[in-house]
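Hi R.,

Here's the input for the alpha-D-glucopyranose complex you asked about:
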Amino acid sequence: MRRGLILLASMAALSCPVSAAVDAELARRAAWWTEARFGMFIHWGVYAVPADSTLLNGSRGAAEWYLTNKRMPIDDYRRFAARFNPGRYDAAQWVKIARQAGMRYIIITSKHHDGFCLWDSALTDWSISKATPFQRDALRELSRECRRQGMPLGYYYSIMDWSHPDYLPRRAWDTRPAEGADFERYVQYMKGQVRELIGGYGPVRVLWFDGEWEDTWTHERGVDLYNCVRTLAPDILINNRVDKGRKGMQGMTREGDFRGDFGTPEQEVPPEGFPDGRLWESCITINHTWGYAENDTDWKSSTQLIRLLCDVAGKGGNLLLNVGPKADGTFPEAITERLLEMGRWLQANGEAIYGTSAGMLKDLPEGVRCTRRGSTLYLHVFEWPEEGLTIRGVSALPVRARVLATGEEIPVARVGRTGIRVARPSETDPAVTVVRLDIGSGLR
Ligand code: GLC
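And here is the predicted structure with alpha-D-glucopyranose in place:
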């Protein structure tokens, strides 16, 4: 709301009523999403069978890129489907873990670059229900569970498609003749699939496109796809990878007339956030790969992950944290453990994350982040200096300072004209201690 008002005010100053209306409209559509702050990304497909993220030269890649990493012909790759039989897949359990982790939405790969579909698409046989012994419709089960448990759901969908005969360009080692391939027909196929998802697997809250970087995908096509989706689902959110405006892994949209409701930094957090109110979501893995890989056990610790969430929230963005389920349908244990620890922290500290905006305090000490709700500031403290924390830019003593998780009241003293010193509480959290400061009218 506040973001909407600020935006409206600044747009009005530029006397640009049309964009102002558009931005207010986006703020309205995205309200649930900015409130949510924390979502689960799921990368799942037949690549979970080989579960290997290494390239032919031995260096580290991502497991969902298996076909390309190994330069494998699509017909050989398709054979993994015969071994994709996730008997332990339980959508209710997946949604439950997301809830317990404190995640407030789920984005799952409906179709990744290999073209394999996790739902029973009428437009291809290259799907979980037709090409595998499993034969169930994983997305139908997940969408039903999300509805039942009140979890917003969105779909990742790859524009690049290594298996569809009409997709161009072909991989260099693909021996299928390119003559007769018709990219326009492929675009119709994509739109047909998007229609299936929106019509039968909803409500779809987000469409998260990817693989937009090849030359066959143009700005005009991006605009057309964006408009097509928006007409089908007026309230949906669509990421900026639908169009050609994304700036590399930094992920925000460059200047120009590009579509996309939010930016998509990948494996990074924008160093300062964006005070102009642009929406963004950092997608980040817990190990190095998106799809499951047996050989990648280099997990971030729960402390690192909790700090990551605070860092993102402190800069006003969302965190989309990835899970690569195994081919048997379960989450790797190392992931579940970490998610549950995040959930425990959020149980006590969620007030400092959900529905907050960037703290907007300058010159915070190292290892401190800040979020804000009205005249309340939340200090996210990673490491406590013995002498307490000095915070600048607060022109009045806070009415009250207390540790959010324990309720402990802590003394605050004035330092200079605009600073305060917050004493170290008697008990601190090894991951992040949140101090709630009720400031009254003293925020600069
Ligand atoms: C990439 C990768 C991909 C992954 C995605 C997540 O662009 O190609 O495998 O799904 O980013 O952001």
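One thing worth noting: The chain has eleven helices and 15 strands.

Cheers,
M.
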